[in-house]
Design goal:
The protein contains 21 helices and nine strands. The longest helix is centred in the N-terminal third of the chain and has 21 residues. The protein is an alpha/beta fold and about 450 residues long. The strands form two sheets. Strands 6-7-8-5-9 form a five-stranded parallel β-sheet, with helices on both faces. Strands 1-2-3-4 form a four-stranded mixed β-sheet, with helices on one face. The termini are far apart. Helix content is about 55%, strand content about 10%. β1 and β2 form a beta hairpin.
Length: about 450
């Protein structure tokens, strides 16, 4: 096959795999030769070849055969021609497989299955990770580990809630290590996959293979380790694997949804081991970080999209304010906006945002509490919280108290009697009087109306 024909075939693959995957994985491939049913490619890194083998080999082989080339397998050679991975059509090599071994499709070995790693997401790199105050320590620690230098902390334990970037950093570390130090045997998988491989090895009576393989990796990365809590046999094997790798000075990177000491049903000895390295919390995102994430995603979308969609001023700021609990929801909302705008032919402005994301905005509305309202009103009027709740009836305290009652009725689902109890055990009729009084003052006293609006904005931010 000539290079011109290969270029034509690559254009077909562009349609087949999509622009992003094509740019990351197919475009760097350089066809070297086709001999005896085997297509040989030059690749910039061994890891790229391994990933293409795992995820796109079937499509590439199919396109070759449709173009009249009888290709049954692929081989990938690095530019330096030092390392290679060979993959038969029915037996793709797995990311994380020892660098010095290949397996024929007909070889009855379980090492492929035992060592099968989770696929890495090409979007999750350090370049696409938006750094802010809530995650700067976790990012710095991950970067340090990815440099692969002398160990200063082991293990690295990353924890935080859903959508805060734990998995993104794990993938970024794996990508960087594979790219900068391709000879390292890096294994990334979830705790659930670790348990599955362990159970499989037990069932097939190949537990010694399991022990040998997992204890011979250079870097072990386990995502969502809280999953093994309560699984006694899996915890036992994880504990021993952990100890062996630490003793060999091999790097371990762990993530979970909470700190080691807070994972229920996790053995105390495992908690102790996990706490002996660096434990880093990814804090909930703040407004500035959410806005930065949105701006980065917009730039990426515009760079990879054939249609140039513009976003009206204020839309990203609005989303960063309103969707504050989960970055995945935030990114999903932006994706939906782009798609909706393209399909209906409307510009992305506040009206489209309100129409398109009505359900997301309702679900993401922050639950404001009576306690928050009381604290915010006390801060605004520079009085003590005890004065808001207490019995003092002077105007300096009574008016802020009534405003707090009014906002509690407007911004929470609490009943009048419940609100009364939160204000020093007052009767519900007192709350009703306070609410009515503020409603009257809002129409006659501009200062009261302005105060209420300012406090509301702070509470809803």
């Amino acid at each position: 096959m000539t290079q011109d024909k290969w270029c034509q075939l690559k254009q077909q693959l562009l349609t087949s795999v999509g622009h992003n995957h094509y740019a990351s994985w197919i475009e760097p491939l350089v066809l070297s030769s086709i001999d005896s049913g085997e297509a040989v490619f030059k690749v910039p890194t061994a890891f790229l070849g391994s990933y293409v083998n795992q995820n796109f080999s079937d499509q590439i082989i199919r396109h070759f055969n449709e173009a009249g080339e009888r290709v049954r397998s692929l081989r990938f050679e690095t530019v330096e021609n030092r390392r290679f991975q060979k993959t038969k059509k029915n037996a793709p090599q797995k990311i994380g497989e020892p660098n010095n071994k290949t397996h024929d499709a007909n070889t009855p070995t379980s090492q492929n299955d035992i060592l099968k790693a989770a696929p890495l997401d090409s979007r999750f790199t350090f370049e696409t990770f938006v750094v802010g105050k809530p995650n700067e320590l976790a990012h710095a620690a991950a970067r340090h580990v990815a440099e692969g230098g002398p160990l200063s902390f082991n293990p690295l334990f990353l924890y935080g809630g859903v959508g805060l970037g734990k998995t993104h950093l794990m993938h970024a570390i794996a990508w960087e290590l594979q790219d900068q130090k391709p000879k390292l045997n890096v294994l990334y998988l979830s705790a659930e996959q670790f348990m599955y491989r362990f159970v499989q090895a037990l069932r097939e009576r190949k537990i010694m293979d399991f022990k040998h393989i997992f204890r011979s990796v250079d870097v072990l990365m386990v995502d969502d380790v809280q999953f093994i809590a309560g699984k006694e046999s899996t915890q036992e094997e994880f504990f021993h694997t952990f100890n062996v790798l630490i003793d060999q000075n091999k790097q371990i990177i762990i993530s979970a949804d909470r700190a080691p000491g807070e994972i229920k049903e996790l053995e105390n000895r495992i908690k102790s081991r996990l706490q002996c390295g660096l434990v880093v919390d990814l804090h909930p995102t703040d407004y500035e970080l959410r806005l930065g994430i949105l701006q980065t995603k917009v730039a990426q979308h515009l760079a990879n999209s054939f249609s140039k969609q513009e976003i009206a001023d204020g839309v990203l700021e609005f989303l960063a304010h309103r969707i504050s609990t989960n970055v995945r929801v935030l990114e999903g909302a932006l994706t939906r906006l782009f798609a909706f705008s393209l399909l209906v032919g409307r510009p992305i402005d506040m009206d489209l945002t309100q129409d398109c994301l009505a359900d997301v905005l309702r679900a993401s509305s922050r639950k404001i509490t009576v306690d928050e309202i009381q604290r915010q009103v006390a801060d605004y009027y520079n009085i003590k919280l005890s004065d808001i709740i207490g019995p003092k009836r002077t105007r300096a305290f009574a008016r802020p108290r009534q405003i707090a009652m009014y906002l509690s009725k407007q911004l929470t689902a609490r009943s009048m009697p419940e609100i009364g109890r939160r204000f020093g055990g007052r009767d519900h009729t007192t709350v009703m009087h306070g609410v009515r009084r503020i409603e009257e003052l809002k129409t006659t006293n501009g200062q009261v109306a302005d105060d209420i609006e300012m406090i509301r904005r702070v509470l809803e931010a």
